[in-house]
Fold these 4 entries.
Entry 1:
Amino acid sequence: MITMARISQYLQTMSLVNSVAVVGLSFLFLLIFLKRIVLSGRKMGSTSLPTVPEVPGLPIIGNLLQLKEKKPHKTFTKWAEIYGPVYSIRTGASTVIVINSPETAKEAMVTRFSSISTRKLSNALKILTFDKCMVATSDYNEFHKMAKRYLLTNTLGSNAQRRHRNHRETMIENTTSQLHALVKEDPLRPINFRKIFESELFGLAMKQALGKNVQSIYVEELGTTLSRKEIHKVLVIDMMEGAIDVDWRDFFPYLKWIPNKSFEMSIQQKHFRRMALMNALIKEQMKRIDSGEEVNCYLDYLLSEAKTLTKEQIAMLLWETIIETADTTLVTTEWAMYQLAKDSTRQDRLYHEMEKVCGFNKVKEENFSQIRYLDAVFHETLRKHSPAPLVPLRYVHEDTQIGGYYIPAGSEIALNIYGCNMDKNHWENPEEWNPERFLDEKYDPLDLHKTMAFGAGKRACAGSLQAMLLACAAIGRLVQEFEWRLKDGEEEKVDTVGLTSQKLHPLFVILKPRN
Ligand code: HEM
């Protein structure tokens, strides 16, 4: 009986095992079948294409250790020589497709834009951009379109730039007269060019945004009065530093439940101080507006036109124009003056070409299109010293293809503008600063996109016109007024720092006024 019972139990177990096995096997076959269908479906679409080459890395952390030094654009460019213009890396849990040639970058930014129009922000940038509440970091949505329209209409479009011309002229006059005063004091003393230009540029940024070049302000939420220098630090310097702060949880989102207190406190504090200061600056200007005094500036425009925006959104959009004006144009102008001070032959050439067009008159914006060499100096500086070397990461929200490779949804895209502008297949001797390359007939003097410096497509730089007008006016006038020479030992100081390619060491020059 016992044996029979055991046999029967055995048979029952076996039949259960069999049933489970049959169900299991059927499920497995179903999975294989479904996978085949999915794959064959993909084959018809983008996945008949090869996957991108991978840069070998380590388990779990991927390529993070290889990116320790803070200039990933340079590492990416070196890898492009080994793996080609499109390759993938792993930063912890994320796969990032890095694009390094002008052709593939244009394909990504223009042709494939609809599949990669959203942003992937680091934890620091999520806080500092008030969760994408800026034109430059928002996704391509209704907010973006509305905010960009406001920005172009009041500040950055060509009509708006015409209306702001007086600010540019004042800025250039102030810069040159301060330089003249310093040279008069001591003709041989090296001058810190950045100190003067940075302050003047920041003044212009505040006038365009708020209608006033504020010298100091009491900030109630901070319980203190901030000087002009402190205002610049809170709105520009701290923000640029915070933007590249790394939270290790960016790379391992599955560990986001582990607190990273020191990181959070530092970023939240920067954000709090920036918002407190913006609120105080806005409040002060509201008093002006309430007293009936209107000024052509972004604040007045947003308050009268953008009724649906919240107080925080207005503060963020105003701050956006301040930081964007104050940083990249400084980077470009400082590098251009470094190159010209280093190269007296090219400096003389620029001077004489301006003389041919303007005689002894001060160079004006109307003259720019006739002075091809000025345009060439500007574009060559943008190419060699790409102020925005990496575009903030984009997110691939549907399968797509770039450069003949299959790019799966869920990847992130890093557009290496520096790599595009240094691509040996596109530029002869890319390491050389050679404005003459842009004198070639094939370049249209009015084209602001001779290099990839301003990006491309729907998200191309909205401030390219302003950047060109400011940088060319400054470069032109500075060379008309002075002979530039680098301070001894300055030539080797070519290292960069930060999110943009700012010179690590401020530019020190010896100036000789021209008669
Ligand atoms: C030499 C100076 C500058 C360079 C090299 C530069 C570079 C860039 C680049 C590469 C992008 C594209 C980002 C992307 O594709 O995601 C961009 C976007 C943008 N830039 Fe600039 N920029 C400069 C100056 C300025 C200035 C002066 C402003 C404004 C005051 C400005 C405002 C913007 C805005 C609003 C966007 C976002 C456009 C959009 O998303 O539709 N930029 N810039």
Entry 2:
Amino acid sequence: MGRKKIGTTWTSFVKSIASFNGDLASMTAPPFILSKASLVEFSAYWTEHPKLFVAPAKESDPEKRALAVLKWFLSTLKQQYSSRNEKLGSEKKPLNPFLGELFLGHWDDPEAGKTELISEQVSHHPPVTAYSIINEKHGVKLQGYNGQKASFASMTINVKQVGLARLHIDAYDEDYLITLPTLHIEGLVYGTPYVELEKSTIIQSSSGYFAKIEYTGKGWVSGKKNCFNATLQKVGSKDILYTISGQWTDSFTVKKGKTEVDSFSHKNNPTTPLTLKPIEEQDPLESRRAWAKVAVAIDKGDYEEIGMEKSKIENAQRELRKKEKEEGKTWERRYFSSVEKDSATGKLLDLAAKYSVSLGVPAVTLDDPSKTNGIWLFDEKKYEGVKSGTREEELKAAVEKVEAATAH
Ligand SMILES: CCC(=O)OC[C@H](C)CC[C@H]1O[C@H]2C[C@H]3[C@@H]4CC=C5C[C@@H](O)CC[C@]5(C)[C@H]4CC[C@]3(C)[C@H]2[C@@H]1C
């Protein structure tokens, strides 16, 4: 597509962003910036290095375990925030998942064994994705949910994430609360948007360790992009046990005092591919199957077809919500349940308060649950129900409702 073409559509598009209402998902963007991937797929970015994900379970020393969690978290950032640039040349606009959309898969790794991914769009207004990533062999689970609050200023889209992630290590009955980075999208003017992370995130463990990661963007000495500095401390002590620094898109080193004790580089650590069922075997609510026709239209860059196929799905959803409203029902989430603020928030905030470091840095503030339509927790009973087949009728009825609404 010639420069001119990108120029007109893109410029008018960027102007439209300037007046958007904060809900990124509701924007219609030019075909060349659309990605075929739905936002519900992004949960997979947490575990594309399964070895690092299960490594903490092998550390009996709690300090080394906390360091292994920090190293795993840092290894996820490149895939989370810059894998579209690598694969597609720039950040792209993901498809806006419909309520109940699923993304199910697993990673097979000779050492880590099988790691299962369950991702579900638990809210459409506002868009909220919940996920549960489980490695039974090593007893490591990551569960969380997130939404985004976006604003626009001086040609940049600022995105604050709401929600959080919790890592649980069965062998030590240990929890790690992970907050989600604030990001902004640069490069909009040139039509080549990319993510830069900013401010800081916290990893707060129930065993008293506390990591703080500061995203410093362009290193003022090195001029390199995507720089960060991280420290690991023990609650209540000012001693810095380890420092980790480098570029989250490339490599980083771990230091104890002045001595380098470990390092990680993406070049030497290729990601493990996610295994998905072939589209024809997928549940109709699974993302790749549900959006298959839109993906074809995006490949063709056929604006009309994209619009037509997307509105079939979106109209069906509107119809379902209308019917549910009339019947006084709500959509039954397949794997997650929203719990009252006091029970879940209380537990999470007690954990954070109990372990927050006396350094006066707030450990973890759980965003206002009304921003994410509640606190979404993985529901083991629902999961067992799916695995044992006792929910067969209920799930079939749900799929039939969606298919009936999409048919006409
Ligand atoms: C609507 C404006 C628009 O389409 O502008 C086009 C540009 C592609 C910029 C907007 C989109 O940029 C995408 C980047 C997405 C975030 C990337 C990574 C993550 C981490 C993951 O764990 C949770 C989701 C999150 C925060 C993505 C959220 C959606 C973002 C901001 C996309 C923007 C619509």
Entry 3:
Amino acid sequence: MNDIDDNPTPQGDLALQTVAMPRDTNPSGDIFGGWLVSQMDLAGMVTASEVAGGRVATVAIEGMAFLTPVHVGAVVSCYCDVLEIGRSSIRIVVEVWINSKHDGEPIKVTEGDFVFVAIDETGRTRAIKR
Ligand SMILES: CC(=O)SCCNC(=O)CCNC(=O)[C@H](O)C(C)(C)COP(=O)(O)OP(=O)(O)OC[C@H]1O[C@@H](n2cnc3c(N)ncnc32)[C@H](O)[C@@H]1OP(=O)(O)O
């Protein structure tokens, strides 16, 4: 995982942008980690589907850490960078960034390595065309 201080700008391309809503909070009013993972999975799926030219499934999520809380109303941006393309798999680092409530500076919230697999209509793996 990249160190937040060594990597002050997003890595990769913007794949998904959304707003953290009150419905995405737990009873204490904090945004759920699971909601963020869901957004990251969607962002990764968009990028992986483009690379794979069709249907993909998430096979693994590795090495995640939540670095800073997300507040309701924050614009949540997911950036994807393709790290590796195998026979059927695509490894993507997904980073989530928000802007600081105080000074508007971009802040990295979390990142994780997501592995997607290209699958056919029956759900079996398929080779990615290059
Ligand atoms: C967007 C969504 O659909 S989210 C839904 C949640 N995800 C799912 O339902 C997927 C459930 N899993 C599956 O259906 C199956 O595991 C499949 C079809 C994805 C893969 O089937 P497998 O029998 O594991 O395939 P196989 O062993 O050939 O591995 C396929 C590729 O995935 C890679 N892979 C498999 N497991 C892992 C893992 N845990 N971590 C990293 N890579 C992995 C393999 O290295 C291989 O890569 P390569 O083809 O580039 O060499």
Entry 4:
Amino acid sequence: MIQLTNVSKIYPNGARALVDINLKIGKGNFVFLVGPSGAGKSTLIKLLYREEIPTRGQVQINNKNLVRMKDREVPFLRRSIGVIFQDFKLLPNKTVFENVAFALEVIGVGKREVRARTLAAIELVGLKVKVNVYPHELSGGEQQRVCVARAIINSPALLVADEPTGNLDPETAWDIMDLLYDINKRGTTIVMATHARAIVNKMQKRVIAIENGRVARDEEKGGYGYDA
Ligand SMILES: Nc1ncnc2c1ncn2[C@@H]1O[C@H](COP(=O)(O)OP(=O)(O)OP(=O)(O)O)[C@@H](O)[C@H]1O
């Protein structure tokens, strides 16, 4: 489903974020990206939803070439990819319902379908009772649940998450991981950059370690592998 071929990324300031990466991630995989701060994990994630374009090499998702893709095609790509960030990025002046519904409204889904699918996604993440409140009235864990609902509203084939538990306490982080686990079980491929050692060690999923922009380790059922 995802294939990176000889991918390098050098930012305009000269920072070499990724160096000659070759990777294949199959449909339905659950992959943790680990590695020291500044290793290139976020950059790799950004290549997957075409927030960044590699300096060299190819990025393919479902046989679509993201490097050659025209800017006007990007919104279509993003409909098949859900994105979750560490800092939530919810719209502050929209309710939970409106934040989640927005992703459907912008692609022209009819009102009734928007309502049904939005409520189903909000129910799935356990936030039915908070459907009409604003983000600032929610805890961090609840805000991240809204982000999960927003990310899965289009039933994406791929979900990418950049440190989704980074701002959450350990217990709340596990609630989010339980959700991602269930979403993966339903067939969505998940790629998640993280520093959460306990989560990586417990879940025993594929672990790709990035160090200095290169793949340093790629294990089928791996552990976090770095000291505290
Ligand atoms: N927009 C940018 N412009 C210039 N350099 C950048 C940019 N984004 C990242 N970098 C540099 O690229 C390298 C990789 O950064 P990246 O954010 O991908 O690392 P990371 O592994 O996600 O780190 P962290 O774990 O701290 O989030 C770093 O040297 C960083 O300073």
